[in-house]
Specification:
The structure holds 2 protein chains of 2 kinds. Chain A has 2 helices and 8 strands; from the N terminus they run H-H-E-E-E-E-E-E-E-E. Chain A is an alpha+beta fold. Chain A is globular and about 40 Å long. In chain B, the strands form 2 sheets. In chain B, strands 1, 2, 3, 4, 5, 6, 7, 8, 9, 12, 13 and 14 form a 12-stranded antiparallel β-sheet that branches. A two-stranded antiparallel sheet of chain B has the order 10-11. Chain B starts with 12 loop residues before the first helix and ends in an 8-residue tail after the last strand. Classes of the chains: A alpha+beta, B mainly beta. At the A-B interface, strand 1 of A face loops of B.
Chain lengths: 154, 261
């Protein structure tokens, strides 16, 4: 999920909006290939549930650190859904993703899928992009580990 | 060792022979009638929005003609959207059908148990209809297709000794059960299910290892949404029978009253 943030911030750096610590790397990388390679991970804890919806929050680490809030939907179908927002310095970015659970009867099924940025605020108001989504869902505690790896064109 | 036939149906040979003789002597009674009616009940314990709960279901099946109902072959059970079967902590381990058939629920991991209950079945014995109560255990089965699977083990001991294993798959908003036929006596109709009472969740004890020690805990039950659906929680089921007929049934669990602070 933090992939979204990474992509957004890198994109912002590329067009000269703001100047986070890693913007130089992103800008250089972006100019070279017009694609941003991103990798981030969030370890999220359970906040509350409402029926099939689980809400988790936690820190994201990696290229774009921030605070992530996820609405994770699992209704028994092999595909799970997630809507999330990452709050970083300078604004927030929202995205949605879908992923397929590999072994739903495991105590901690893993999932793999794709994500798409749906919008943002502040300096990320016009960000767009997407990537791949990986993660683990802990059925006992409702915690989530989410990893995002991708290439974001701009 | 238990004998098995088809879907894990076992019989005590001596009892069967005796029952067969009784039937042959008295003549088999009523075959299944052409149509059946079904009644469905549902209850949450506790009834608290936004909290995990146990779901108790009751089914009563009767023949429209008053005789024995036809044998049940399938149940398509629909539950209201937002009811969180999949995100419960029930079934953190799985049990294979082969293991369940061979060893019963006690041979399955404690963390695979999802609930239990009882069933009343009827079958003809001479001029009479006999009744038998079977105990039911529900365990999580392996998932070969990405969906959650539930195995239901029914064990009856008197007057006919037998076990069956049913399988169910959890789809979004509904559970589909396949019910194997349970032969009663040679030349007689299959055993007819007339009543089911099952609870999913409830008083279950799971185990986990924490720092080398085994610790027990109560798994979270089925999550209720924070908002009640308009008109309450509506459940519906369609029961399929061997004679080709279908019997629909539905029920509604009213919205829990808001608790005063």
């Amino acid at each position: 999920m933090t992939l979204v943030g990474v992509g957004a911030l890198a994109l912002a750096g590329a067009v000269g909006i703001g100047a986070p610590a890693w913007a130089h790397y992103s800008r250089a990388n972006a100019h070279a290939a017009r694609v941003l390679n991103v990798r981030d991970e969030g370890r999220l804890h359970y906040v509350r549930t409402s029926g099939e919806l689980i809400i988790d929050e936690g820190h994201a680490t990696g290229t774009f650190p921030g605070w992530v809030r996820v609405r994770f939907l699992y209704n028994g179908e092999p595909t799970v859904g997630a809507r999330f927002t990452i709050y970083g310095s300078g604004g927030s970015i929202s995205a949605r993703g879908t992923a397929r659970l590999s072994s739903p009867t495991s105590p901690s099924p893993s999932f793999k899928g794709t994500l798409t940025i749906t919008g943002g605020s502040g300096r990320y108001a016009h960000v767009h992009g997407g990537g791949q989504l990986f993660g683990v869902y802990y059925r006992r505690s409702y915690a989530l580990i989410v990893q995002a790896i991708g290439k974001i064109p701009y | 060792m238990r004998k098995r036939c088809g879907h894990a149906v076992s019989r005590a040979g001596a009892a069967l022979a005796l029952l067969s003789a009784l039937v042959l002597a008295a003549g088999a009674t009523s075959a299944a009638d052409a149509s059946q009616t079904a009644r469905l009940t549902a209850k949450f314990t506790p009834e608290k929005l936004g909290a995990p709960t146990a779901l108790s279901l009751g089914v009563d099946i009767s023949s429209a003609g008053g005789g024995l109902p036809s044998a049940l072959t399938a149940i398509d059970f629909h539950y209201p959207p937002g009811l969180a079967f999949a995100t419960s902590s029930l079934g953190l381990a799985t049990c294979t059908q082969a293991r369940l058939e061979a060893e019963g629920p006690s041979g399955c991991p404690a963390n695979s148990r999802m609930g239990g209950g009882s069933a009343i079945v009827e079958f003809p014995l001479g001029p009479e209809t006999r009744e038998e109560t079977a105990h039911i255990a529900m365990v999580a089965g392996p998932s070969p297709d990405g969906y959650l699977h539930v195995l239901i083990y029914a064990n009856g001991e008197e007057p006919v000794y037998g076990q069956i294993v049913m399988s169910a798959v959890l789809l979004h908003g509904h559970l589909q059960f396949t019910v194997p036929l349970v032969p009663s006596l040679p030349g007689s109709p299959d055993v007819a299910v007339v009543q089911l009472r099952v609870t999913i969740g409830g008083n279950l004890t799971y185990e986990e290892r924490i720092r080398g020690r085994t610790v027990t805990f109560r798994p979270k039950g089925i999550g209720l949404p924070r908002r009640c659906p308009r008109g309450g929680f509506r459940f519906a089921a369609t029961f399929s029978f061997l004679d080709g007929s279908l019997a629909p049934a539905q029920t509604t669990v009213g919205c829990p009253r808001k608790q005063r602070r």
